[in-house]
Amino acid sequence: MTLKIISPSEILFQGEAESVTMPGALGQFTVLKNHASIISVLTKGSIKYRKPDEHEEILEIKGGLVDVDNNIVSVCVY
Prior knowledge:
By secondary structure, the chain is mainly β.
């Protein structure tokens, strides 16, 4: 799936990801390939994403929004 993480000032990551774990308003959740469409508020915490080479990246955020649709995960953070 394609993951794009943006802030108001820059693109923080854009590329392929095997999984993305995010801090949702109702708790942490993970998105995998072919996940159902969803829009969610993100709270302060960590976004963890695993790239196809099995390397995991961690990004600390203060909050944001995520939109998942057709294997495209769009995350806006602040």
